[in-house]
Amino acid sequence: MSRKAVIVFAAMCVIWGIPYFLIRVAVSEISPATLVFARTAAGALILMPVVLARRGLRAIGNTWPPLLAFAAVEIGGPWFFLSSAEQHISSSLAGLLISSVPLLGIVIAPLFGNRERISPVGIAGLALGLCGVAAIVGLDLNVPDVAALFQMALVAIGYAVGPAILRRFLTGVPSVSVIGVSLAACAVAYAPVAATQWPRTVPGAAVLASVGVLAVVCTAIAFLLFFALIAEIGPVRATVITYVNPAVAAAAGIAILHETFTVGMGIGFVLVLAGSILATRRRQPASAGNTGT
Fold it and tell me: Taking the mean position of all CA atoms in its chain, how far away is CA 57?
């Protein structure tokens, strides 16, 4: 990778690893719906001028239904469920559970037209990853809030379905248009709920700072950097950050919020990481000259 790609890659690993502890701080004083609205509204305010300047709305054409579906399953639903879950579980646990997304992506891909068969190695990777998730949740016999775990499952499913929709229906739409419009749509959807749950007193400085960093750095700037990373190294290699973000999330939760890191969480993450690498590894082509149809 070029020096630019390395710098952007490292930045993305951190930027998409720290939201978990920031969310944990924010939901201590504001509701999950309010937090989602603040993040999406601020992100839309930053990205929509770029979309409009590039006449990005025209590129959407007749893909509005899948785009709105993408917004719901990639942003609107997961960000709410994640924020709600972190009212009851640690940010470290939330981040580590998200490491299961690549595994779910392999299972969900065939539902969206991906006919690539899972190899025996891939199946072994899925099984290994499943054992890892079980270890993260319960190896230490300290099962956290069951409802929060269910919400985290919905988050992981949404994060796996979103890219599948993107690849199947939205490949012709500029990335900045997809994200900008998705953020704007979610902001509009959450505005009525956020209005009824708006805090009656000004939240503390730590909460305000967390919301600001989430909205500006971890949402708007993060997506722009991610587009730049994809342009530098391609979409497949860019997804490697998925393997690093949970470790950053766990480290931030332990170092900043003094959360407990259990043996089960450590063993489980290693198993999920290994399983994800095996399950997502592409088969080598039969010959160098065979490039497909």
Answer: 24
